[in-house]
Amino acid sequence: MKQGATLSIRGLHASIDSKPILQGLTLDVHAGEVHAIMGPNGTGKSTLASVLMGHPRYEVTSGTIQYGDEDVLEMAVDERARAGIFLAMQYPSEITGVTNADFLRSAINTQRGPDNEISLIKFVRKMEKTMQSLEMDTAFMHRYLNEGFSGGEKKRNEILQMMMLEPSLVILDEIDSGLDIDALKVAAAGVNAMRSPDRSFVIITHYQRLLNYVRPDFVHVMMQGRIVKSGGAELAERLEAEGYDWVKHECGIVDVAIEEEPQWAVPMQTVSPRGT
Ligand code: ADP
Ligand code: MG
């Protein structure tokens, strides 16, 4: 675990199926800091989360990601997890046949290594205690991972995983979507309980309401696959009050989403040589 490490993203470009999504994203997250990334739909926020975690469908075409002294782009997904990077996904997967408890215990043991596995009793106690703090029914321990969970239950379960794994870099992708106000407060309390000088957070959110409960140190606005504006917590408040139009105006952006390839941008190899 890289406790107390800085995440440093420089000029990151990434594509999916040859479609450029991230277009020069630069961000530093120091230990102890909470960064919120906000932005309209389709601006590349989830893509950033996936690239940080090493999703194989996304191709990084240029730029760097360092975590402490390690080159994250050289690390496999499990190595990233062992280094303490954790992603709560916007759309968590359902895994039939693997219970929530089995999944978490093997994740914790992978992190701890073969000679240092958590005892069953300690694990169960910790899981029960954490579930209680999140007001989750302990029956969820023995349910298959996310199978048949409601949207809100999935989100709570992601927070449970975060609290059990105690990562050093937490990325939360729209953890607030699908949560009613009570569940939002419970999730926020979980995040706040985990805040520490050794741990940093990247909180991706569409709405400011989560930030009423988890106060960020920095707020960034993402448009067209990059960060176009940064500020403090007051920036989120202004976005809540005024929307995103003023940011577009200030940055001279017409369409916030990732630009479609212009029609004339024919790939070089398909252009016939002149005269044929
Ligand atoms: P956000 O999270 O900000 O809403 P995303 O990162 O999900 O944005 O998406 C950014 C752009 O990338 C969108 O245009 C989206 O259609 C495209 N995109 C993301 N994932 C895929 C995918 N798996 N296949 C094709 N296009 C994708
Ligand atoms: Mg998203």
Key terms for this structure?
alpha/beta, Rossmann fold, 6-stranded mixed sheet, 26% strand, binds magnesium ion
Describe the structure in your own words.
By secondary structure, the protein is of the alpha/beta class. It has one domain (7-259): P-loop containing nucleotide triphosphate hydrolases (Rossmann fold, 3-Layer(aba) Sandwich), CATH 3.40.50.300. Helix content is 32%, strand content 26%. The protein has eight helices and twelve strands. The strands form three sheets. Strands 6-9-10-3-11-12 form a six-stranded mixed sheet, with helices on both faces. Strands 2-1-4-5 form a four-stranded antiparallel sheet. Strands 7-8 form a two-stranded antiparallel sheet. Helix 5 (151-165) packs parallel to helix 6 (181-194). The longest helix has 15 residues, at 151-165. It is globular. The N and C termini lie far apart (59 Å). Residues 261-276 have low confidence and may be disordered. Magnesium ion binds at residues 45-46, 90, 174.
Q: What is the arithmetic mean of pLDDT?
A: 90
CATH architecture identity = 3-Layer(aba) Sandwich
User: Which parts are unreliable, with pLDDT below 50 for 5 consecutive residues or more?
Assistant: 261-276
SSE arrangement, N to C: EEEHEEHEEHHEHEHEEEHH
Neighbour order of strands in the largest sheet:
6-9-10-3-11-12
Strand content: 25-35%
How many DSSP-defined strands?
12
Task: Give the helix proportion (percent range).
Answer: 25-40%
How is the CATH topology named? Rossmann fold
Content-based structural category: alpha/beta
Provide the CATH superfamily. Answer: P-loop containing nucleotide triphosphate hydrolases
Largest sheet: 6 strands, mixed
Outline, from the CA principal axes? Answer: globular
CATH class: Alpha Beta
Ends: how far apart? 59 Å
Report Rg. 20 Å
What is the overall number of helices?
Answer: 8
